[in-house]
Amino acid sequence: MAAVMPAPAAQRLLLSGNEAVARAVWESGVRVAAAYPGTPATEIIESLARYPDLHAEWSVNEKVSMEVALGASMTGARAFCAMKHVGLNVASDCLMTMTITGAYGGLVIAVADDVGLSSSQNEQDSRYWGRFAHLPVLEPADSQEAYEMTKFAFGLSEQYQTPVLLRLTTRICHVKGLVSVGERIAHEPSGFVKNPERWVMVPAHAKLRIPSLFQRDETLRGVSEASPLNILEAGSERSVGFVASGPAYMHVKEAFPDAPVLKLGMSHPWPPEKMRALAAMCDTLVVVEETEQLLETEIRAAGIACHGKDVLPRMGELSPQVLLPAVDRLLGRPVPPPAPAAAPVKVFPRPPTLCASCPHMGIYYTLSQIKNTIITGDIGCYTLGAGHPWNALDTTICMGATMGVALGIDKGRGEVDKNKRIIAVIGDSTFMHMGMQGLLDITYNKGNVTVLLLDNNTTGMTGGQATPASGRDIHGKEAPRVDLARVVEALGVPNERIKVVDPYELPILFKTIRDEIKIEGPSVIIARRPCVLIDDFKPFRPYLVEEDKCTGCGNCLEVGCPAIHVTRREKVVKPSGREVELAFVNIDNQACTGCGLCVQPCAPDAIQHVPRRDIPIHIVKT
Amino acid sequence: MSQDITNILVCGIGGQGVMTATEILAEAAIAEGHDVKKTEVAGMAQRGGVVTSHLRFGRKVLSPQIEPGTVQVLLGFEGAEALRWSHYLRPNGLALVNNAKLVPPVVELGLFDYPEDPTGLMRTAGHRVVAFDAMSIARELGEVRLGNTVMLGAIADYLPFAPDVLLACIVKRFARKGEQVVDANRRAFAAGRDAVAKLLGAAATTAA
What we know:
Shape of chain B: globular
Largest interface: A-B, 59 and 57 residues
Strand content of chain A: 15-25%
Structural class of chain B: alpha/beta
Order of helices and strands of chain B: EHEEEHEHHEHHHH
CATH architecture of the largest domain in chain A: 3-Layer(aba) Sandwich
Distance between the termini of chain B: 35 Å
Largest sheet of chain A: 7 strands, mixed
CATH class of chain B: Alpha Beta
Oligomer: heterodimer
Strand order of the largest sheet of chain B: 2-3-1-4-5-6
Distance between the termini of chain A: 30 Å
CATH class of the largest domain in chain A: Alpha Beta
Largest sheet of chain B: 6 strands, mixed
């Protein structure tokens, strides 16, 4: 990804919220922008990497990305970091003290909440961090606002020497809309100033600064009251008025175009006078917020009567069709029944699948064959190992948790689990994000855990971002490449207990896992094969099924490859009297890239290479 | 709710090109001077899962999501996926569906059934459905990758602007790939238009 000339100013571009934030960061003269990939925020830094004149990086985790941004801000440079909601949990240790030092150069933190859990292990409301850390929270409602508020945030940050939280949600990040863009204004850093009372957070210094947080809250409340980001729209139909921010504002405007609305662009601290003015002009006040009842509780505590989560759902995304009947019910109006055609048809589920030739399939096929185990998992494409046909993972919690959870299971188990083997699965990127510390804990505390480190040379699930072990930087240029086997050894795993295997070689993989789980003490099996969606992957000769040889045993289906399809099913009665269903298969050789995983469990050798004459030359590699 | 808004739902499976097709439709709407919002939810992992892309355009678009029962045109890249999202169609809405049948591993494992005749079920539910084989059409033109342009051709006559506006956006996207590629896409676009026009014409004759 080489830097290209960005689109000129005064153009209207179709940009996602993520791209709009990136454009604004670049225009604001930011010098340093850092992130760890995470849906739905990944594309912010990905698109920033294409702009010139700034340092963009994939950091190893969100905490480091925030610290990098803070360091840059200390020099007077404008700085930015971006993360998904759970990433801010990781970065919160930095955040809670950074709020005390404050920012010097403008410092903006974009945090993207996955409302509705499209790709996350939980749903949480990042607006809480504004309260917890005494920081202003800005909430754009579309791409244009995402762009404008990002630019505003840098000025706000510098004027009040505060980091600013830019709260996004999936319906900002991944919605494209038209954005009028401007020019970049360079911002030369004024220089690092030695000031231990400010930058060295020992108790004596922090104590002196904490009162300034309370003062800042009050000052920002005044800013919020006067800010054009918080608009009171008087409306004409005043039986019910609304408080809304972010995408919820759009839903309110669509459902109740004539109602009074206080639109909060700066939702923390919120403006009490504007809130009272809204309450005075309508009979009933409804607070429309996605996920938690945060504003609602605060507004009520301020002595203003309001409704909110008593009538609206507490989780998931809102929409006009959710708001309309809820408000009808609240006001005692008749609720129109939904149109009969609007009932969804029941169709089989289509969960995401591992790709054809995904090296993780070899791992999970093997793990599904090993009994008497407890297998802890982690966050990545490989979380899909918990699903069909493998059903191989027993736990998934948060980034890196596979290590600590596995150790805890080992130390906590009683008689009933004493003979079980404990296996911890983790991907390469997750290992470097937060798994290394857990492994150190396992070795230090003499845990009896076999770690499977799935090294596919990328951050797969978020779209193939580079890692310190992939030998490339964010621009795809060569970078120092960390050797995972040496890292593992340095973390205390004995050299003879570190195995490197090929996840396509099922017999060796099976034997290695079976041998390692039998031996006491920690061991790490590194399974190494590139993700099939990155450039490092080179396809092999595809396979086909010789249909006259296929016995319908279905062993190959247990691999879980999406390129294998059942052509017919047949019920037969075995000599034992048991009825079994046979499934005869073929392979979609447009999709097959020849990993050979399905060949290995095929008893009748029915899976063979496609004849050479039938395949295009460029994909042949044997 | 806004009456002047056009809602188009494009659905399919990760890796089929749903998002790119919707992006080109969005560019066409912008070229016609509309305000546009486009959004999608593509669940975790990259391939194989359900993908829907919502396109709304008109004078001023507020909510980015399309609500069930409000879609004017549903463009389905796969039969069962079109059925899955058919409740998003408004009464008299039109579904243009590629006949492709992509069967996921959970069905191959025998855990769930793939519906016999997805578009038939949609018709039974009272929807107007045109089902055609975009991939065969593309293959006849010599390149399966033209399937997406066939799909765009299929919808071209059911938009509130001239088909040429959409064609211009396709041409613009492929311009740097040379005249041959552009011509192939023009043919694919025309073939998609023809396929739907013939089937809808036939349906009208049968009804009469």
